[in-house]
Structure formats: structure tokens, C-alpha cells
Write a sequence for this structure.
């Protein structure tokens, strides 16, 4: 059951966008997002919604590693222009 909902918009929040780096470490990224938003990110209890992900190539690349390295975290990514980026 989801207890926490964290919504970030990479277009409107450039400070959050900068947390996605070429050195992909999704657990560190989640810790940084949690510190920035003040909302805990707890595996199995948090839904992380990443909006406008198309503005961050590193963000797009990190999706694979969310699945591989942090599979118990619920993640949704969306982008209004994502099809043009891919």
C-alpha cells in the first residue's frame, strides 16, 4: 500500500532535474529528492512520480536502474513530449 506520494516535475524544478546525473545511483537520487521535497521515499511505501522526464536524458536513462537496483520502489514517469525525445 502506498503511504507517501512524491511528485517532481523536471521541467518546472531544475534543482530536482540536476539530481539526475551521469553517475546513475538511483538510491542516492531518491535520498536527494527526499531531502529536497521533505517527503520520505520508502521502498514499497512510496510512489515516485517523475513528470516531464523528457527534459533530462539522465532521468530517462535512470528508469532502467530504478527497475534493476530499486525494484521495490513504485515509479511512474511521464512526459508530454517524450515521444519526440526518444
Amino acid at each position: 500500500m502506498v503511504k507517501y506520494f512524491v511528485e517532481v516535475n523536471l521541467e518546472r524544478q531544475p534543482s530536482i532535474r540536476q539530481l539526475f546525473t551521469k553517475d546513475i545511483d538511483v538510491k542516492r537520487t531518491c535520498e536527494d529528492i527526499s531531502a529536497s521535497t521533505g517527503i520520505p521515499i520508502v521502498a514499497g511505501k512510496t510512489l515516485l512520480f517523475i513528470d516531464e522526464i523528457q527534459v533530462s536524458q539522465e532521468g530517462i536513462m535512470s528508469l532502467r536502474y530504478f527497475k534493476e537496483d530499486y525494484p521495490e520502489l513504485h515509479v511512474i514517469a511521464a512526459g508530454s513530449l517524450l515521444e519526440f525525445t526518444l
Summary: Residues 26 and 65 are 7 Å apart (CA to CA). The longest strand covers residues 4-9. The chain is about 40% helix and 20% strand. The longest helix spans residues 57-69.
